[in-house]
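Target chain:
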Amino acid sequence: MHNTFTYRHSELPSLRPEIKAEIVGLDVQIADLILKSQGNFRELEELAEVLDNCLDSCELNLKSIQIIPDDDNLQPVESPATITDLPIQEQTMIFSTALFSAMVLATLQKLTGADGNSLVDMISEQVNTEMQEISDEQITTSLKNYMEGYRKNPMQQTFKVKIPSV
């Protein structure tokens, strides 16, 4: 579990020069790697995956920091992230999955003649039961695999998701 840090806006630590130098150094190394890998799909894909994992880790750490105003109001300055804050590729993935589900339900309703609300209720109950068996780690791993499939084939809007260890 990550530590949670809370700072008043005026007490935010400054960017240390040695850390700034390391960040600039990383930027130069990454730019050099991209240039060296230009035209090599596998190398660029591997680099993108490593950078994506680093970005995820950095963003997770950023979310463990809460900034509060300098006055006595203890409300965070930034609002929590929502689905609409995700990159458009990930928003598209979520939306296309919801659209796919709606289309499957409509097709199922036509094929069976069942009431749409009853189908939704029955399937929702089954999903809720299944979700109780799935850990947060399994969800994260599954979504990571889903995104890898999406990155490899962005024109395909749906993918079969296998939940690890289920």
